[in-house]
Amino acid sequence: MSECLNLLEQALDLGRQELEFLASGKVEETEEAAHERGNLMELAWQAKEREQIDVDELLDKLRQLKNMQGQLTREARSLYKSLESDLARARKEHGRLTGYRQATQVMPTSSRFVSKRG
Questions:
Q1: How much of the chain exceeds pLDDT 90, in percent?
Q2: Helices (DSSP H) in 25-54: which residue ranges?
């Protein structure tokens, strides 16, 4: 297998890892894997220019990468919507609890403006 196809296969493997990371909510690891996948694809593109590759094999790998990218995008959007709903719920809860703040404050029994001497 040529260097280009090897690098594209590694990029596919990293894409599968990204899907696992996204599914488990590990955003930082997903970001690192995405950058590494991008670097591998750039290296594969450069290697393609240096060697002769079967076009059908190259197209197959590129289609697989395209499908992988679609899956990654769908999973990322689903994670985004989940986070968005969690934030909206937290804001609503904060507003509800803020309403109780005034009712739960303890009023002092004496004022600093009242003389204690009489």
A1: 57
A2: 27-50
Q: Token match 């289609």: residue? A: 63
φ and ψ at 100, to 5 degrees? -85, -10
- Structural domain boundaries in the chain: 3-76
Using the 8-state DSSP alphabet, how is residue 108 labeled? Answer: P
Model pLDDT for residues 40-80, shown as the tens digit of each residue: 999 998 888 888 888 899 899 999 999 999 999 999 999 99
Half-sphere exposure of 94 (CA within 13 A, CB side): 6
Whose tokens are 């990468």? That residue is: 65
Report whether 82 contacts 38 (CB < 8 A): no
CA separation for the pair 36, 106 (Å, rounded): 56
User: Cβ-count burial of 36 within 10 angstroms (0-12 exposed, 13-18 middle, 19+ buried)?
Assistant: middle
Prediction pTM value? 0.72
